[in-house]
Amino acid sequence: MKLLITLFLILLPIIAFAEGLTLSQVNVECLKSDNCNERKNRFATLIGDYRSLVHMKDTLRVLASDGGYQSFTYELDENAGKYSLNIHFQLKPIIEEINIGFTDRNLEYDPNQLLSIKEGDFFEIQRLKENMTSLQKRLESMGYPKNTHTYEVKEKGNKVVVSVVVTLGQPRIFKNIRSNSKSKYVQDYLVKKFYNLYNRPFEMTKFKLYLDDAQKELFNYGYFLIAMDFTPEIKENRVTLDIKVTNDQLFAFDFKNLKQEHRNVIHNILLDLFRKYKRPLSDSTIKSALREHYLNKARLNAEVKIENSEFINMYDETVHLYRVYLDEKYKTRVTSVNFSGNNYFSNKRLQGMFDKEAFELASINYYDQEFYEYFVDYLRGQYIQRGFVQVRIPRPVSNFDAEKRTATVDYIIQENQRAYVRKIEFQGIPLEYEDKLLTVMHNKSTRPFNPIKMVDDIKKVASTLQEEGYYYAEVTNANDEDLVRYTKTGADVDIRFKINLGPMVKLNRIIFLGNNKTRKKVLLKKIPLEPGDTITPMRTRDIESALSATGLFNTVNVVPLKHNSKNASTDLLVRVVEREYGLIEVAPGYRTDLGLKLTGTLSYQNIAGENKSITLRTQLNQRLSYQTLDPQRRKDAVPILEHNTSLTYTQGDIFDTLIDFSASGAYQLKRFYSFDAEILRANTIFTRDLTKRMSSSVRYQYEDIQQFNATNEIDNGSFEIGAITPSLTYDLRNSQINPVKGAFFNLSTEWANPYFLSQKEPDLTINYYKLISRNRFYIPFKNGTVAISMVGGSRKTLPGTRSKLMV
Fold it and tell me: pLDDT tens digits, residue range 88-131?
């Protein structure tokens, strides 16, 4: 039986606190543990002001909503007008380890995958019993009907170790297969299909999957109507699979005179007919489907002839053969598309719409019935958007010559009365908001009425009010007939929005849930709100984006807690699900230029819960080809194991500022075109978001480069480059991860000179600057997005520089 969380055992008179309550102290009593300390810190956030006792209870309920309590009680005390909350709870123990052992034989599966309880979960004896019952049933379905088990739970402080001992018993063994199919091929196929399961435990689920797979494969072989089911016959733990086969008739196709269309296309059309009708196909069904297909290819005169016959194949089966004779004929060309009855749109404008929207065939002036019908709906939408809500456009009339080699397409348009917006009213909002709402709406007074944009207008009205602080504002008559009313003539339209504003929502306190490892200050840095600030949907979305961008959480959800009080003070709930912060990754691979490569990564994020991370990454590669080296080095090349090892440390909001910090060091051995080089590199980067769209960064990098094995002796040598690179980024993309529209601009300038530890020697001084502009544009269009990257820059060597070839 599940343990119930008794959160509220003592009810205090609500009337006494109807005017508000200030909680000045929270005392928490629990058994000492990491989870206890984490929850103590969580409940400490209860200190503050409340609208009422109900508000305080609701907040307490939210903080305790993730469960894990064996018992939970609290008392509220008052002393000289000051209130203190005393909380007493006992947490359920944590499952530290789950051990599953077998006494007689082992499974092919990891037994822990058969349980829903996991290490790290809160322990519940009832849940363990349910898992044991589920395990027994699962093992029975896997072919062990007499399996038994025992379990033991050992307590170690606030943790438990669960040990399970399973005796599988004698399994049911799959021994034989039998089917009633009249086809020898099907019988042999089924025997081979299940061959690798012989003399193994009979697992019902696996056999069902095998049978489903067999039915699909036999369909592809020509048994288009076949259906199969099985019944296991069990005798003394020996299983015979009795497979019932129906409709094992074999079909085949022979296509003649195919010249334009690919055989697979026609073949798949007929296969789809078998799937749809689940019976032998009539000649008329085949002809109708193929003629429709060729009609959509502008071959209106295509002819189809069917011959049916039967033959005996090598397995002595009767095969029903559909021999399909095709005369694909020619495509019908459209000589003109005509429009009549139109006054608002000119013929030229309509023709332009037609050409812009045309599908492939119509765009090259071939007959396309599918597009012509689509264009009726498109054209109707264009008229309706402009107020012609009663427009009538029937299907176009097609006129053909005697042989259907050419055609004309005629659209007849009845525009009818145009509707205008006579007035727009708002009910339930202060007058000062009306002008702003009218500004954002598409429909406006005295303008043609656009019913298609009404959905957007409803959203804009609600969202505009929500961004004013009425977080729960809604249009209550959005789906009612009284939202839009037409006059009797249909010439005028009145729009009336009935709005429920709800309370103005302002921040009282922030409640965090799920940050078991992440410190609260890390989250607070990403939340630019103070008590009393207005909460809007855009602000909550920005907070979600900022927290997600840290990379610490799988999911982030930020919502105010809804209440019915007139008091605008509202708690903001920030619920996060933390990631697994440790990562070990090994990635072997091959590249044509680098050859065989092996990459290893060891990293840990969120060190001490402070958004700090450290990553060690190394890559080894051995070239199998030297084509990327110059001819002389190719000739004299000796194998060298190249490598690149880096250690990176990052920290968000360093020193409690809004500046992110990163430092890394790397050592690399790399082969270049005309020399080999060892590179020692160290850099630090400081990044600061200036606005929602703009950020800046400063990078300092030092490189020590040793060049050797050069084709020309002059290229051998050592170089030291110290450079500082400030940059500015302006990001207008709709998404940083998967942008489909917008633009990205980055401008950086790199300064390298002896002041920044660049080399300064009699024969070599490094002193230069580089200016680089990196720009990306994302332009959406009908079927996707065009991404354009533009990079430009300049470099200038400053006076006093003496240099030679460098990496």
Answer: 999 999 999 999 999 888 887 788 888 999 988 899 999 999 99
pLDDT tens per residue across span 328-347: 999 999 999 999 999 999 99
DSSP secondary structure of 555-611: EEEEEEPP---S--EEEEEEEEEEPP-EEEEEEEEEETTTEEEEEEEEEE-SGGGSS
Using a CB cutoff of 8 Å and minimum separation of 24, what contacts does 108-112 make?
111/164, 111/166
**Location of structure tokens 């298609």:** 452
8 A C-beta contact, residue 723 and residue 749: no
Global pTM reads 0.78
Q: How far is CA 287 from CA 22, 262, 273, 434, 803, in A?
A: 82, 17, 11, 62, 80
Model pLDDT for residues 269-315, shown as the tens digit of each residue:
999 999 999 999 999 999 999 999 999 999 999 999 999 999 999 99
Q: Which helix (H) or strand (E) holds 214?
A: helix 204-220
Domains of the chain: 15-91 (3.10.20.310), 94-167 (3.10.20.310), 173-246 (3.10.20.310), 250-327 (3.10.20.310), 333-412 (3.10.20.310), 420-500 (3.10.20.310), 506-578 (3.10.20.310), 582-797 (2.40.160.50)
What's the CA gap between 584 and 604, in Å, rounded? 9
The span from the CA of 343 to the CA of 353, in Å, is: 15
Q: How many CB atoms lie within 10 A of CB 309?
A: 11
Cα separation, 778 vs 744, whole angstroms: 9
List the one residue out of 664, 583, 590, 592 whose CA is nearest residue 620.
590
**How do beta strands 148-156 and 173-179 pair?**
unpaired
Q: Enter the tokens of residue 309.
A: 């016959």
Q: What are phi and psi of 17, to 5 degrees?
A: -115, 20
What are the C-alpha distances in Å from 534 to residues 202, 234, 542, 569?
63, 70, 14, 9
